[in-house]
């Protein structure tokens, strides 16, 4: 596993605070845990900070440590350990996570990465020219049956071809990402067999009787 470090000071904001809605949510989340166990809220609070800012900043880590009464190093350990936390700025319109684990790789993930290199930036975790798009390779996202796939923020886009991924990237680049339906990008019902049912295709007379 690669070493994960916070972004350079030059891109770090000076301060962080939850907005009013997220502050109320954070306070309610902390109350779910017994007295003395508030540190258990660290992951959901870091995730909410990331959703608000787009990435986990040094200031947000310091703020959450203070909220939970945790040593700063403990929150830093969590943020740098879990790869779900983005430690540097990502695309404001789309951050594309390409699954590179075996099933997706066998089904064409390398070609999807080539699309990202061409359409966004040659290097992963690097913003495009206008800061709206970025990409990275990640480990299994749990949609192996629908390989290859990518995650864009919270949504999965599955059964991809390079051509379809190009169309999706173009839509997000144009600010029209909400017009792209998540899930399988072929005529398929979730994770059902792509070619139709191969079992349980006949009724059971005994069950019907």
TrEMBL record:
Cofactor dependence: [2Fe-2S] cluster
GO biological processes: inorganic cation transmembrane transport
Keywords assigned by UniProt, alphabetized: 2Fe-2S, Iron, Iron-sulfur, Metal-binding, NAD, Translocase
Reaction(s) this enzyme catalyzes, per UniProt: a quinone + NADH + 5 H(+)(in) = a quinol + NAD(+) + 4 H(+)(out)
Renumbered residue ranges of the record's region Disordered: 179-209
Cofactor binding note: Binds 1 [2Fe-2S] cluster.
Entry GO CC: catalytic complex; membrane protein complex; organelle envelope; organelle membrane
Family listed: Belongs to the complex I 24 kDa subunit family.
Protein name: NADH-quinone oxidoreductase subunit E
């Amino acid at each position: 596993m690669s070493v994960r470090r916070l972004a350079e000071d030059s891109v770090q904001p000076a301060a962080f605070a939850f907005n009013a809605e997220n502050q109320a949510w954070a306070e309610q989340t902390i109350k779910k845990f017994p007295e003395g166990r508030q540190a258990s809220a660290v992951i959901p609070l870091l995730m909410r900070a990331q959703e608000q800012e787009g990435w986990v900043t040094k200031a947000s880590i310091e703020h959450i440590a203070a909220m939970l009464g945790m040593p700063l190093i403990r929150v830093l350990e969590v943020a740098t350990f879990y790869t779900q936390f983005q430690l540097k700025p990502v695309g404001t319109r789309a951050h594309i996570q390409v699954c590179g684990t075996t099933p997706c790789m066998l089904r064409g993930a390398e070609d999807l990465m080539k699309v990202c290199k061409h359409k966004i930036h040659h290097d992963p975790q690097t913003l495009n020219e206008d800061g709206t798009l970025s990409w990275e390779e990640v480990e299994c996202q749990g949609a192996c049956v629908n390989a290859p796939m990518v995650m864009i923020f919270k949504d999965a886009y599955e059964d991809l071809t390079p051509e379809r991924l190009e169309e999706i990237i173009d839509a997000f680049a144009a600010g029209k990402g909400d017009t792209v339906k998540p899930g399988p990008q072929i005529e398929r019902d979730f994770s059902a067999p792509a070619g139709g049912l191969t079992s349980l295709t006949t009724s059971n007379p005994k069950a019907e009787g």
